[in-house]
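DM from R.C. (forwarded with permission)

"hey, sorry to bug you on a friday — could you get me a structure for this? deadline for the figure draft is monday and I only need the backbone to look sensible"
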Amino acid sequence: MADVEIAPEVEDGGEIQEVESSGITYQEAADGVVHLRSLKSNGDVQYGSVLDTFEGSKEIVYDIDLPRGSTIETDGKAALVLSESGEFIGGFEDAWALDADGNPVSTTYKVDGHRLIQVIDAGAGSPKFPIVADPVFKRGMIKKVTKEKWEKGGWVVQVKVTAAARLLRLKSVTDVAMLGYKDLVEHYPRSMKKATMRQQWDCHVLGLYGAFTIDLEGYRKSKPNWQKRKLRRTLFTPLKRKMLVP
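My reply, with the result:
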């Protein structure tokens, strides 16, 4: 896995401080914005910016040190990081920001070279300060496994996918299927043993862009030829319906 270093652009900032034994560091900038960084045990990195007050919109800029030739892409909501050869490196979860009352504040991403810029718009509505913006960088396809339970003679697993998985699916269904299932097998080997689990995962990946949660049910029968049957239904069902129309 390629090394990725991410740091907010801080003008005239104070020294970086560490919250003892927490893995959290913070730094206050001259404009009053406090930048936080938290390293998770699974390798995810979470960033936070606490904005005390501003008018209109505010940009938080993250400098991302990537291998030569790598690129950052965004649809405005999430961001995808790819190597020069197009291999998946990681991605940022959907941009979000909350005001002091916990209400969402309008926010989007944009990209300038190797800089990811989060734009926070305080002009929409009347948010209560301070505002917290909190992008998360993840390295895999799986955001979280919310259930692993034995039911009806098989393991039932519920998976939440990352925003990067949904973006990457538009480029390569094969990469998302392979990398995502590899993550599942590595961390949940007992529930991924049956062939039906891989078949269901691959099937869900085909429609992944509109999905956030995937259910895999180990009690379902294995269907090795599901891809051919799905293709046949996709191609011929609309044609059959058309032929039946008088």
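R.C.: lifesaver. Residues 185 and 192 are 6 Å apart (CA to CA).
me: no worries. The longest strand covers residues 142-151.
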